[in-house]
Amino acid sequence: MVERAFPLEVYGGGPPDRAELELEIWLAALQEPEARFKPFGDDWPTTTLPAFEAAWCAFQQGEAIGRDFDLRIRKAFFAESRNIGKREVMLEIAQEAGLDLERFTRQFNSDEPRAAVLEEGRIGKEVYGVRGTPTIMLNDGTKLRHLMAYPKIENGKILSVGRLPCCGEGCYQATRDLFEKALKQT
To answer: Can you give the pTM of this predicted structure?
Structure first.
């Protein structure tokens, strides 16, 4: 499996929309009851590029390190209400994760992560037709769709929600089936 950056603010219409995300958090909580969510404070990120760049830097220290760091960023945003758009927050998370901080900081302060993130996003959009996240795709470009309920939002209000196909542990088998299908194709 290969993960690629796709910064929505550059290739998908803007940074995270706070009002829309706050409307959808309850839906995410229904689908993953064990997850912890904390209401967002006043410090809302105006950009997510520092988070993408920091994750890229962490992946340069190893795949397992990068995946762990990526999850830490998500936890910081959704469960701790930390502003992942601030470089100093990314440096704090890198320190908390026990990364080689000297190496991380040197790379993070260079132009290399931004260029890599923007190039991955460009390829996703132009070559593979990615329009949003997450997009799960096989090597041949076939897109796989994970089971989830989608809300219909209009004028800042949820009008309806599609059928919830599974909930919590009930989604594990559907997720396994999705990835087994992907593995058979590779």
So the answer is: 0.77
